[in-house]
Amino acid sequence: MTAPPPLHLTPALSPETASLLDDTATLHQLVGALGSPLNIVLPQRIRSNVTAFHEVMAAHRIGGHIYYAHKANRSSALVRELAATDARIDVASPAELQHVLGSGFSPDRVMATGPKTPEFVWLCARSGITVNVDGVDELALLGRIVSGARLPQVQVLVRFSEFRTAGTTLLSKPSRFGCAAGDLDTVLALLDKFRDELRLRGVAFHLDTVGMPEKTRAIEGSLHLLDEFVRRGHAPTVLDIGGGYGVNYLSSAEEWDDFTTALGAALLGKRDHITWQGSGYGLRNDGGRLRGTLGLYPAHRPVAGPGYLDGLLSAAAPTMQRPLGTIILENMYDLYIEPGRALLDQCGSAMARVLEVRTSPTGETLVRMDMNARDVSLEEHGVQLDPVLVPQDSVPRRAGSGYLIGNLCLESDLISRRKIFFPAMPTAGDLLAFPNTAGYFMDFSADHALGQPVATKVAMYSEAGRWKWKLDDQYWPLSPQWLDHSSDQSNSQEP
Ligand SMILES: Cc1ncc(COP(=O)(O)O)c(C=O)c1O
Known about the structure:
The protein has 13 helices and 21 strands. By secondary structure, the chain is of the alpha/beta class. Helix 7 packs parallel to helix 8 (about 185-195). The chain is globular. The structure holds pyridoxal-5'-phosphate.
């Protein structure tokens, strides 16, 4: 019997990411000097991602702002580079707020989202940033703080997660955040009570999904809410549709289909396992039938990021039956978006050293890495893509397959529960790079388990056609021309 063909999930690489991963000598030097794991961010790339979102809004003739969801990556280099664009930023904690104010963002370009502590609410109000309130209690607290501390009026967006129109509740994806439809009267009463302290700028939602139907329902529901606020004496101008635009991680739709088909076949016993101990990622064999729901991110996404926003604005409102973008334009609302993952598309890669390749007692090949599953939390977030081999030498390698295991003393510490099919098998001393991991996979979950350091972060940037690098914290978006004294001297007059 012939062995089934290898199941690759080849990552989609931008030309910059591909060129970086080709520079094996630099990558080995960096990991040698700064340790494994190592996170590399590409701050310059975030500029083109911002531009692509702007272009979509311009094509729909819609004004508004792009708020980068900072939570997706703690990098200073990315935040500072973004501060040098006209993008804005969404913060979800006091530390993030302090970080962005120290990175070049003025308060009028910052918005706080998500549930907040009283201390965070005070800091938001005191700093004069926009507050996207997560519920009625938070709205009341904000009003009391602004009034009690005699602070300037705060610009407020109210986040909803349930919407009602003509007496029926519009269902969007259930969320434990934001106000319910039934909170509207309380919100209005609080806005009246704190009329001097709070100014309603608009309505917001964020749904943790890339599902279009849920989003179109939420947008239409928000438009109704905006009408209602106007009817009740307010003058909101903003519709904030949150994040969730998605990223395409894979270069081939066919490979993704082959993998999901093979997963089902393996669970039904029709082929060898392709996952650790037969893990089904949410699917299971129930008496010979496949049941459950695949709990993986749809890693091949032909329409993602700015393209997804374009699709959303072009989609018809479920009951009004007209393109959502047209309705937003006609009402002259400003559109706010809060992309995290999508703004970080191709903005960085995690990498780590291979410590050993060995065979388990059950005959599985194990590739032991100098990192753990939290250092590159692809499994936790359900994203599957193949790592790229960064070889230490030019010795030819055979193809092979195996599971990536981490450096913790936990059976569960698997960097990938999916069997990786390598075109060239790694050996101890090689590096494996996990491309396009800047959005959530680098530092969202990383910790000091076993007292091990979290990955050092390095910013790589191109200057005069060459890759250069700095520690993330040392990177500022300064043009070399601005530092060149010679141009001053050439203009100066001789005494
Ligand atoms: C309020 C809010 N806005 C924006 C985002 C960013 O979402 P994404 O990275 O999927 O674009 C999140 C993510 O959790 C969020 O909670």
